[in-house]
């Protein structure tokens, strides 16, 4: 029974298909090394067999050709000396190797003129016609004919070697028998058959065949052993990859495949797999961190929102109670005070919700447009003006950032006092202003009003890309990495140009163990002090998200002499493409500092308005 397809084509019998699928399934369970070794053995076997057949056939043709030439060249000589050879012959004369038979057409008889005799009297002669016919063969063209063995005259039982030699075929050539009469006239007398035994030739071919078979077996066995060792050695990297993959499958994502020489298939595979594993591990860690941050964020956000909501609810209840207590002046004042508290709590909750929405948009890649040409120096100068208006007695120093490579092992940033330079970036101006305002707002809130502040800006070249910069953790080691990349840039002049802004205060600072966490959402080193200052714990998180969206880097380190230094590094181009030279327009920009303020009373007059401006832009911060 067969299965018929619906397409009208020829159907395959089910048993045949089952057998074929069974063979495929059987081969699928054979290891790759076994398949390779078996393939090599099969190829060696086929190759040695073909070579052996070609050698034996070539030698056989050569020997047959030489026998034919010998018959044709010596036929006349042998025929003319048959009488001489017979007179000197004995029954086993090894000198006699030719067989000569003459057919006389006049008498119609055939005569054996010369007959080789083997050991123990064994006679072997070619199977030839006795009537002078050619049996379809041509004159003067050698052909092969079987042997007729005669043991009737043997004195004892011949051995196997003699009988084997006697049974080999003969190579025979038929020639015309021409005789001359007394007048010298030639006459066609009959046919002469001259033959040579192919015993020696066949015996040599047999020995050669046996030798080729033995060599072929040795080659196949040796090739099998060598191929097994080579295949095993060659597949060792794959076995290591298999073991590494098994460990990775068990959950150890830190495993890596041992490297192999570049330019080899295993080397390319190892490199590609290691890159893939690194990316997978990084993605997994990031996903894990994102999940943990999201859980912590939801928990903190719920807590932060619950506080103003509870205050609103409590003061609303209190307002009802106070309004119901009567129409006295004191009751109305208490009610108004409750309304003020409700308004303050709702305002705080509004700010918090706005910050949460802003972070959500930044996380999704929305809410930012990096298309404007922004003067970074002017942005910092505006924030310095705000800070001076809020803290007129604070000393604000500005300058240009440089690099100090006197100690190549520990390079550092330097600051040359002066006006802030003009550094133009392709960025989102409003978001960049928000970052700087948040930082300056933190300085205003959490540092003494009489502590000095340094604001500096400059451009450096670094042998690194923006993607590498964005991946750096926000700590001092990353700053050291950037400085060494800048040192390398001075030697190779290859890399990208970056704008560097530093905000240095000399306040109480942040403990080292908390410094790397100030960019976490809702993290506050001193929650009570942050609450008192009106911070939400989201300002630095927003600043980091904005900087990262610009393919930049921000970190917090300790200032020399105490305090906190915030460093922002942004690429001059929107995507941080590398190029051959770092450059920027360093034209000085106007900046507010104590020496540049024309009339402090103007700032005092507008102090409340400026403070509200700073609070609006920088109040959503954390220490």
Automatic annotation (TrEMBL):
User: One GO molecular function term?
Assistant: phosphorelay sensor kinase activity
Record-linked Pfam families: HAMP, HATPase_c, HisKA
The residue ranges crossing the membrane are 36-56, 211-231
What sort of enzyme, by top EC class, is this? transferase
Q: Supply one GO CC term from the record.
A: plasma membrane
Segments of skewed composition (Basic and acidic residues): 600-623
The reply to whether Transmembrane figures as a keyword in the UniProt entry is yes
Where are the residues of the annotated region Disordered? 579-623
Limits of the Histidine kinase domain: 300-574
Gene3D superfamilies on file: 1.10.287.130, 6.10.340.10, Histidine kinase-like ATPase, C-terminal domain
SMART domains registered for this protein in UniProt:
HAMP, HATPase_c, HisKA
The UniProt record lists the EC number as 2.7.13.3
Q: What is this protein called?
A: histidine kinase
Q: Which organism is it from?
A: Bifidobacterium criceti
Which lineage do the record's taxonomy fields give for this organism? Bacteria, Bacillati, Actinomycetota, Actinomycetes, Bifidobacteriales
